[in-house]
Amino acid sequence: MPTINFILHDGQKVAVEAYEGSSVMHGAMDGMVEGIVAECGGACSCATCQVYVDEAWMEKVGPACEIEQEMLGVAPNVQPNSRLSCQVEVTDELDGLVVHVPAEQY
Amino acid sequence: MSETCIIIGASHAAAQLAPSLRQEGWAGLIIVIGDEPYAPYQRPPLSKTYLQGEKGVDDLLIRHQEAYAKHGIELRLGERVEAIDRESKTVTLQNGDVLYYDKLALCTGARVRKVSLPGADLEGIHYLRNIDDVNHIKAHVGEQKNAVIVGGGYIGLETAAVLNKLGMQVTVLEMASRVLARVTAPEVSEFYERVHAEEGVNIQTGIAVSGFEGAKRVMRVVCADGSHYPADLVVIGVGVLPNTELAEAADLATDDGILVDSYTKTADPDIVAVGDCTMHPSELYGYVRLESVPNAMEQAKSAAATLCGKQKPYTALPWFWSDQYDLKLQIAGLNRGYDQVVIRGDRQGSRSFAAFYLQEGRLLAVDCVNRPQEFMLSKRLITQQIQIDVAKLVDDTKSFKELVSA
Questions:
Q1: Residue of chain B with shortest Cα separation from A41
Q2: In terms of Cα–Cα distance, which of B192, B183, B128 is closest to B159?
């Protein structure tokens, strides 16, 4: 199982083994990662599972789709490397992925 | 000795409350008791991607089952609580087990409202609330077969959209004069009626179902006006009722929901209640009972604090969503008491618009169809309670972001 590393806003690191084919958000749920709220459960409807993708992983993770971009366009604390983690699929290629969790999701 | 918190209902609320308890510092036992055989799962996709076949049970789980054990959370699935004894601080299960609690959380949710019409127990007639309900519905899905949906609410319309996509001939029968009558303005109802018609769903409004006919299996749905519709499958979606019986039997106050304060406390200092089963105060809208995942999750966080002796009031703005066809509907706020509806975008010719509900010039709620920016930004406008310039709201030539920040 690929490992996803969540860096919390206080610097604490939570490493979670995530199921291939599931989402990074789902991995955060399993790891009970504080700061990933995921109110809509992966429907790309709430923007409460935002993460900042570590620069080194940006290319592998790829860009957001149109609706995700629109959500991110008005979500708080958005950066160029922001993604909604429910829209990032866990693959073998992403084993070791590092994402940073914002201080808050509102 | 270690303390025990028992959570009744393996629900969305429980899936959030249990880990939030750990985060708030609860060191004792956490036991989640649920009468379904599944770990807490997402219900909203049941009438959408799960029915469609895009998602399986594993995708629905809010957290995989082993994640709970890792955090010291015991799931007792397929078990049902029969009674709560507040004197001895125990719950009694159906199998006779008696469990002691120091703190108790009622996350009992809601159940479907059933109809008591003639023939309502024929095979092929289903409700939609649980994984098993949808599995049964799926068994009757077939191209060119006839599906009749009773009730034009969100569940009924989402189900109609999916069954239509799966190749069924779908009819929706709604008793009120329009679909979504309980939750949206006529303008929005009209929009959904148009889209469903364009997609090939037959929507009939102002029609009362009087019964179901068939030998063993349902064959047709009969209406009070004498009309009837052939049916290989019937799905009834006419609302839900809060599961308040355990609370009532334990002498906790209820009123269309278990009464709680903004800290999710009941009258018993050791018992909280969270989610669809609660009647709770909302800063903007007074006392409300919400059928809503975000509400369950936000209340759960407040409840976790309460159970750990802290105070985190629940103040979140209600919001909802519904996916049908290529329509992403996002709703912020509650529109009850609105005196004005204004539309941004072309609701008659396109599939993208927002309906704003105002009361005395302030924004109460908004229904956004394929308008994520309007949705996200309106959440803030609603919370701020400021006077809104309607001319700006409807000016679709400028981006909403620009209008709001101007």
A1: B42
A2: B128
